[in-house]
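User: Hi! I'm working on a homework problem where we have to compare a predicted structure to a textbook description. Could you give me the structure for the chain below?
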Amino acid sequence: MRERAPDEHDDTARDRGEDAASHGEPPLRISGGSIRRPSAADLAAAVDRKVPDVVAPRLRVLFCGINPGLYSGAVGHHFARPGNRFWKALHRGGFTDRLLSPYDVSEMVARGLGITNICPRTTARAEELDDEELRLGARALARKVRRMRPAAVAFLGVGAYRTAFGRPRAVVGLQPERLEGADVWVLPNPSGRTAYYLLPALVRHFRALRKACLTPKRPRPPRRAGLRSRGKDTEIPVHDRRR
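Assistant: Happy to help. Predicted structure tokens:
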């Protein structure tokens, strides 16, 4: 049974360059060495920067954030700010056998996992993205999903998903629609500043996604081009003027 998400648009938490110690987290580490935290100048220079997607054809799950925050934009890796709970939820949810860091890109892909965003540009706050930019991002994402053909797309933040895809009543969990043939899930925003979901609840949603993705499915009959089925296999109607 899907859990009803809070009505508040809880996707606006973003990094403003505060010290990571406020989250009770140590600095990110890679290969035994500490990684320098970005300076205030680094964060300011990251505005509008793009973080490369972590993608490959036919992934098991393509995780989709809203857009990069300043910290991620400054270091060039997704969910990089200390205090973001994405990596812990991924590990405790059973997707990885150890706690990965934002720098473990190759290990993500090797496990059939990827990361992208609805909107690629970095901002200080997600609310800096207007509704039209989210809708345009949804169209671009649909094209990406059509090319890469992941088994599932998991959106990290219900508010942005509702706006981007015109689903104002969407709640956390498996969605009744599909996106270009991929199952669609909506998970809580893993930002450390999201107060509605504590880590155990976040892990529970990640675990549900992992169990669903690992369960063998009966093959679906191929669809004829231009047709969209009804019921649980209904496609999200993303209007793309380039089609």
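For your comparison, note the following. Helices lie at 40-45, 70-75, 86-92, 105-110, 131-148, 158-165, 199-214. The first strand starts at residue 29 and ends at 30. Good luck with the assignment!
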